[in-house]
Amino acid sequence: MEALKKALICIVLASAGQQRSRMLGTLFKDERCQKLPCYHILEKMHLDRIIRHNELTEFQNMLQPHQQATTSDGW
């Protein structure tokens, strides 16, 4: 399960493209991913739905320090 969680986080953080879309679909269809705490983010990204700020904050809390990049404008 830990490997699936890390894969899900990597896919969410990856740049947009066809390969990422394919992987989002693959993880979305995997029943084991439904048990992960960040599954709702995967679901919304795969279905092109809006991710609310509180959901994004919850996801951000799961990230490792090296995954939390901050741009010059603070995002």
Describe the protein in words.
By secondary structure, this protein is mainly alpha-helical. It has 4 helices and no strands. The longest helix is centred in the N-terminal third of the chain and has 12 residues, at 2-13. It is globular.
SSE diagram, text form:
Blueprint: H1 2-13, H2 18-29, H3 39-46, H4 53-60
Helix pairs in contact: 1-2, 2-3
Short description:
By secondary structure, the chain is an all-alpha fold. It is built from 4 helices and no strands.
The 3D shape can be described as: globular
Note poorly predicted spans. Answer: none
Residue fraction in strands: under 5%
The share of residues in helices is: 40-55%
Structural class: mainly alpha
Question: What would you call the quaternary organization?
Answer: single chain
Give a short account of the largest sheet: none
**CA-to-CA gap between the ends?**
30 Å
GO cellular component, one term: cytosol
InterPro entries: PSMD12/CSN4
Question: Which descriptors apply to this entry?
Answer:
single chain, 75 residues, mainly alpha, PSMD12/CSN4
